[in-house]
Design brief:
The protein contains 13 helices and eight strands. The protein is of the alpha/beta class. The chain has a six-stranded parallel β-sheet with strand order 1-8-5-4-2-3, with helices on both faces.
């Protein structure tokens, strides 16, 4: 099996980075016209900056407001708008689902894609992967594009103005990166790009984990104060670049499969991707029989940055057996990444691991 490392063509991060969008596109030889698929916050905060930056670079653009969910219906709507505009580039500006939609549209049309996240709430910006949901919020499928974004531009001034819960959720998503990468490397499974993990991907995943533990709480304090600090810059890089490269080039395992399982329970739909992944991390560690000090470190980190570690914290107070069985069954579906674990996993094992993880989270919160 060949080793494969996947990454965006160019990554730019920093204070007021959106002002450099046009110049960065020109430098990379990316012209227009561009369709900007924009979430609500992105449209409100960045329209004037896009106008200045892209006009100065002589790049024509149109803005299409996102419908919110990354569903097949939404992808079809945006695809039609891009075709009508005659655009040759698709730019996603907003949260993870907006970027996933823009990425899927660009892939379907064979166009280059630019990621401009307005939050650091997931590792979606650097990836070629789009997670497709049903209209009612359940994970439906993955769409792995032919190429990663041509440019990822991360404006930390904008991220500092987003709710702190979003940054914490991004840390929950990033927390899974090292544990899932380690599992996939040990199991010698194929990564998201169909190859073996490289040592560089594994090293980036581990650096992501160390950065979270070192800077997570300080970065969260910076966002609460709406300030850009070195700690925030490092966590934004961990949530976005390190986690994105680490998961795509190493692989996913139980933590994300448990997230997907949780989407089968409607009460969890109010919770963010990274919040559900955080509980998935604890479940994965229990499932793997990880050392107690490693589980304790993960629980302590989640408590420090406000990530859920119990089912009740995800809207499932005292869930019945049928609900947990539905979650476990969804998490162990035939195409789920939980089968990257280096041992056979079935639904009863996941159900027990979730119950044990919930008990550990409850005990740690007392």
């Amino acid at each position: 099996m060949l080793s494969v490392f996947s990454s965006p063509g160019h990554y730019v991060q920093g204070r007021d980075a959106t002002a450099a969008l046009g110049a960065q596109m020109v430098r990379l030889g990316i012209g227009g016209p561009v369709t900007i698929v924009a979430g609500g916050s992105a449209h409100r905060l960045l329209t004037d900056v896009w106008q200045r930056s892209l006009t100065e670079a002589k790049i024509d653009f149109t803005v299409h407001r996102s419908g919110g969910e990354c569903s097949r219906a939404e992808i079809d709507r945006v695809t039609a708008a891009v075709r009508q505009s005659g655009s040759t580039v698709v730019l996603g500006a907003g949260g993870g689902k907006v970027l996933d939609t823009a990425r899927a549209v660009a892939d379907d049309l064979g166009l280059p894609m630019i990621s401009c996240p307005t939050t650091a709430s997931s590792d979606a910006p650097c990836s070629a992967l789009s997670v497709i949901y049903t209209e009612d919020g359940q994970v439906e499928s993955y769409q792995l594009g032919h190429r990663n974004p041509a440019l990822v531009l991360v404006d930390t001034s904008v991220i500092a103005r987003a709710p702190s819960r979003l940054l914490a959720a991004g840390m929950g998503d990033a927390l899974a990166t090292w544990f899932e990468a380690r599992t996939c490397t040990t199991a010698h499974v194929r990564n998201m790009r169909g190859g073996a993990s490289t040592r560089s991907a594994t090293a980036l995943a581990e650096l992501c984990y160390r950065t979270l533990l070192a800077d997570g709480s300080h970065a969260l304090a910076a966002v609460r104060a709406r300030t850009v600090t070195p700690a925030l810059e490092r966590i934004v890089e961990a949530n976005t670049l390190l986690s994105g490269l680490g998961f795509e080039s190493s692989g996913l395992a139980a933590a994300h499969a448990v997230h997907n399982g949780l989407t089968a329970a409607p009460p969890t739909h109010a919770y963010l991707h990274g919040e559900k992944v955080a509980f998935g991390v604890i479940t994965q560690l229990v499932l793997e029989g990880a050392p107690s000090d490693e589980i304790t470190t993960a629980l302590d980190f989640c408590a420090e940055v406000g990530l859920p570690t119990t089912l009740a914290a995800l809207g499932l107070a005292d869930p019945d057996h049928a609900t947990l069985s539905a979650i476990a069954t969804r998490a162990t579906g035939p195409d789920e990444t939980i089968h990257n674990e280096p041992f056979d996993v079935d639904a009863p094992m996941v159900l027990d691991a979730m119950r044990a993880a919930d008990a550990l989270g409850t005990a740690a919160a007392r």
